[in-house]
Amino acid sequence: MENTDKEKEFLSLIERNRGLISRVCYMYSSDKETFSDMYQETLLNLWQGIGRFRGDSNISTWIYRVTLNSCISYFRQNHRHDHTQSIDSLYEFAEEVSTRNADVKEMYEMISRLKKLDRAIILLWLDEKSYEEIADITGLSRNNIASRIHRIKKQLAKEASEE
């Protein structure tokens, strides 16, 4: 395959999965610059790894895994210590990224307060991944995923009723 064909195929793949990549990067970023850096790092990792994709899973599952790993690696390299974000900065960033309605903003804000693994699991679930696909991506068992999703949904429902 010619390089230009490979590039066109890659760009088409990225375009079809832009929303998936953006959602994961958004949940791990604290501002527009971090989002952009994570997104670019993810694209680089996808480009470098596409030749090693074996087809053992759906391409979107592989993209999710690469994106998640890219964001976690970026976060670890650039955030040596935990820091908190102001709710105001999360709202400002959410408005820059898209025109979500108030309920969706609130949901994403609550999700952003979850532990990193729980955040990844619920994002996969919201993206309509099956328990088996989520288990494959995270390396956890299907039963563990089912119980975590149940617990996360209860936690989010409780937080929503308190606000």
Fold and architecture overview:
- The chain is mainly alpha-helical.
- 77% of the residues lie in helices and 0% in strands.
- It contains 9 helices and no strands.
- The protein has helices spanning 3-16, 18-28, 32-49, 59-78, 87-97, 102-112, 116-126, 131-138, 142-162.
- Helix 4 crosses helix 8.
- The protein is globular and about 55 Å long.
- The chain starts with a helix and ends with a helix.
- The relative contact order is 0.11.
- Residues 97-101 have low confidence and may be disordered.
Quick synopsis:
The chain has 163 residues and is mainly α. The chain contains 9 helices and no strands.
Mean pLDDT: 81
Portion in beta strands? under 5%
Shape: globular
Helix and strand pattern: HHHHHHHHH
The count of β-strands is 0
Task: Determine the number of helices (DSSP H or I, runs of at least 4 residues).
Answer: 9
Distance between the termini: 55 Å
Helical content class: over 70%
Supply Rg: 16 Å
Summarize the biggest pleated sheet: none
Weakly predicted, low-confidence segments: 97-101
What is the structural class? Answer: mainly alpha
How is the secondary structure organized here?
Blueprint: H1 3-16, H2 18-28, H3 32-49, H4 59-78, H5 87-97, H6 102-112, H7 116-126, H8 131-138, H9 142-162
Helix pairs in contact: 2-3, 2-4, 2-7, 3-4, 4-8, 7-9, 8-9
